[in-house]
Write a structure and sequence with these properties.
alpha+beta, 16% strand, binds 2'-deoxyadenosine-5'-diphosphate, binds magnesium ion
């Protein structure tokens, strides 16, 4: 989906939950003007994580990545808005927090690539795949934000 209905999958990883920064992360997406259309807290299974990170299966850090991601609850979300996939990635910062500028989520809240607190889809195609992997259709809401005419 593109235009104002474009959607991305964002997840606050177990370290983001444990460190008590769920609210601050959600605030950044809200204050930008993006619309939250789905959210749930869950401790993901190994199967789900292997599917989610299937493109990285051959990488040396893959087993550690899966263990970290299943080590506690995560907050899975779908955010909607014009350019949300690309802008969401800009808001996250680089994969390695050391390369992430201040003002980005990873630049402001974390240090190490293996504990980088948040996931965001890297393309519209991945977003579609990830949203259907993490959410059932009836978990995705459809509503008009009262702010929409002041944002667009
Ligand atoms: P991103 O999460 O920015 O999309 P990615 O898809 O390349 O990055 O990798 C997924 C996650 O895997 C990343 O958030 C953290 C971990 N990871 C990536 N490269 C790593 C590395 N060199 N060492 C340890 N963990 C790494
Ligand atoms: Mg990625």
């Amino acid at each position: 989906m593109e235009g104002q209905n474009e959607r991305t999958f964002i997840a606050i990883k177990p370290d983001g939950v444990q460190r008590g920064i769920i609210g601050q992360i959600i605030t950044r997406f809200e204050q930008k003007g993006f619309k939250l259309v789905a959210m749930k807290m869950l401790q993901p299974s190994e199967d789900l994580l292997i599917q989610h990170y299937i493109d990285l299966k051959g990488r040396p850090f893959f087993p550690a990545l899966v263990n970290y991601m299943k080590s506690g609850p995560v907050v899975a979300m779908v955010w909607e808005g014009k350019g949300v996939v690309k802008t969401g990635r800009v808001m996250l910062g680089e994969t390695n927090p050391a390369d992430s500028k201040p003002g980005t989520i990873r630049g402001d809240f974390c240090i190490d690539v293996s504990k980088n607190i948040i996931h965001g889809s890297d393309s519209i195609e991945s977003a579609t795949k990830e949203i259907s992997l993490w959410f059932k259709d009836d978990e995705l809401t459809t509503y008009t934000s009262c702010a929409v005419s002041w944002i667009y």
